[in-house]
Amino acid sequence: MRIVIIGAGAMGSLFGAMLSSVSEICLVDPFEAHVRAIREKGLVVEQADGTSETFRLSATTEPSEIAAGADLAIIFTKSWLTSAAAETARSLLGKSGVALTLQNGVGNLDAIAEVLGRNRSVAGVTSHGGTLLGPGRVRHAGRGPTFIAGASPDISLLSDIAGTFGAAGIQTEISDNLDSLIWGKLIINVGINALAATLRVPNGILGITPACEPMMRRAVDEAVTVADALGIELPYDNPLAHVKQVCEMTAANRASMLQDVLRGARTEVGVINRAIVRRGEALGIPTPYNLFLSEVIEALEATSAERCL
């Protein structure tokens, strides 16, 4: 399978490295230093035990350098870049090629489907965690299952993707409940991302620190209440326990929102905690904890240039 990965930050690079053992991979990302390091020295993936491996991958900042005809485009960009990434995918995919979003938050699949059509759009969630350590270097900070589902289900297509991922060591299962898939991951992000970014701690600390639990529980409870009102069945029975389990599984990982805050970049709080607030307002459900976390992260974004070190 020929695969292009659009958005080669921590997760895009990590998946590119893993998939390179079974597929032809090309990474596309505007981060010039990162792309240059990969092209010149390879992509170094560091494991939790301190070992590392270097992967030789194609990488570019210019999609026009890539020949069209890819079988799969995996989109790992930030959510506000999804529509542009889908346009890039359209220019690089073959006629029967599809795009898979493994991004955070809600709304990404719809944005891709608007460009490619629902029959060429696939959504997924993954428990793998990655941290960008510097140009050409990422840490594989957590492992776990990956789930995929089609906007317009084609079992043979999903089976091809799952088979390719599985051959690369990415345990992948096909889901028949797309909303459950997306909201299951959303609630995990609600419980971890903004809190980790505010406290500036890795995921594992959140799950074992008693003082963190009340904030995590209240944010998660609000999101679950909204999901229940929307008639969405979550893929786990105890949401808070599951969020804590993910914290344990990705203990060394710096949540993507924390990585954004640390480098003064725009976060995805708008499609995570703020998304819960918007849907709560539409349903008449109060979401004060997610509102507070959204406002704190938005204030951190607005004051990043003035931060005291």
Automatic annotation (TrEMBL):
Pathway: Cofactor biosynthesis; (R)-pantothenate biosynthesis; (R)-pantoate from 3-methyl-2-oxobutanoate: step 2/2. It catalyses: (R)-pantoate + NADP(+) = 2-dehydropantoate + NADPH + H(+). Residues 178-301 form the Ketopantoate reductase C-terminal domain. It comes from the Bacteria. It is an enzyme of class 1 (oxidoreductase). SUPFAM superfamilies: 6-phosphogluconate dehydrogenase C-terminal domain-like (SSF48179), NAD(P)-binding Rossmann-fold domains (SSF51735). GO terms for molecular function: 2-dehydropantoate 2-reductase activity; NADP binding. Its EC number is 1.1.1.169. The keyword Disulfide bond does not apply. Pfam families: ApbA, ApbA_C. One of its GO terms (cellular component) is cytoplasm. The keyword Ion transport does not apply. GO terms for biological process: pantothenate biosynthetic process. Catalyzes the NADPH-dependent reduction of ketopantoate into pantoic acid. NCBIfam families: apbA_panE. Belongs to the ketopantoate reductase family. This is 2-dehydropantoate 2-reductase. It comes from Desulfonema ishimotonii. The lineage of its organism: Bacteria, Pseudomonadati, Thermodesulfobacteriota, Desulfobacteria, Desulfobacterales.
